[in-house]
Write a structure and sequence with these properties.
The protein has a five-stranded antiparallel sheet. It is built from five helices and five strands, in the order H-H-E-H-E-E-H-E-E-H. The termini are far apart. It has helices spanning 2-12, 21-38, 65-79, 111-125, 180-190; strands at residues 49-57, 84-87, 102-109, 145-149, 169-175. It is α+β, with helices and mostly antiparallel strands. The longest helix is centred in the N-terminal third of the chain and has 18 residues, at 21-38. The relative contact order is 0.18.
Length: 199
């Protein structure tokens, strides 16, 4: 009974018909601009963001699983979604790593949570980086983009006093774009601050 009440309360927390700002912007503005930029003949050709995957490697987890569990709890705070713990797939003797050891944590975001995370990342988190001058263009040749962050503590949800350990993050944006040029244009339209090129 208690579980049902919890679900109902969570559902009531989101207003009926709620649409994240970036999702709305995509439908109402970005699709039109990309259609004109690339001369698409149909809306179905316009690239879209499919999912965002956040990976956090935790090297110390090989000696203490609790550290990985703490990292997973942090990632859940950052993303608003439960994180899963990732394990090594094989033995690596040089790193004293055995198959099945906890080595990190990850979250895959889709739908509204994906757009909400992207908006917080662009408008709140990235501007907190000291001497920030934009993100590098690490596109993979298949329309996907990976952003590396050195410290998870740049996210305002993290209280450094409660957990002083520093971990890096990899945030991968998976799009339907067939080229890096189109993926770059899509993410730039969303507001991802790429570094400016010196001409």
């Amino acid at each position: 009974m208690a579980k049902k009440e919890t679900k109902a309360t969570a559902a009531q927390a989101v207003p009926a018909g709620y649409v994240p700002a970036l999702k709305k912007a995509y439908k109402e503005e970005i699709v039109d601009r990309l259609t004109k930029q690339f001369s698409y003949s149909t809306v179905m050709q316009v690239p879209r963001l499919v999912k965002i995957t956040i990976n956090e490697g935790v090297g110390e987890g090989t000696s203490d699983r609790k550290i990985v569990e703490e990292a997973a709890a942090e990632l859940a705070l950052i993303t608003g979604q439960k994180a899963v713990i990732t394990s090594s797939k094989k033995d690596v003797s040089n790193f004293k790593l055995r198959k099945g050891m906890a080595i990190g944590t990850k979250v895959t975001l889709r739908g509204n949570r994906m757009y909400e995370f992207l908006e917080r990342l662009i408008r709140v988190t990235l501007p907190r980086i000291r001497d920030f001058n934009g993100v590098a263009e690490n596109l993979d040749g298949q329309g996907n983009y990976t952003l590396g962050l050195k410290e998870q503590i740049i996210f305002p949800e993290i209280d450094i006093d409660k957990n002083p350990r520093i971990h890096g993050l990899e945030i991968t944006f998976v799009t339907t774009a067939s080229t890096d040029e189109e993926a770059y244009a899509l993410l730039k339209e969303f507001g991802l601050p790429f570094k400016k090129h010196n001409k």
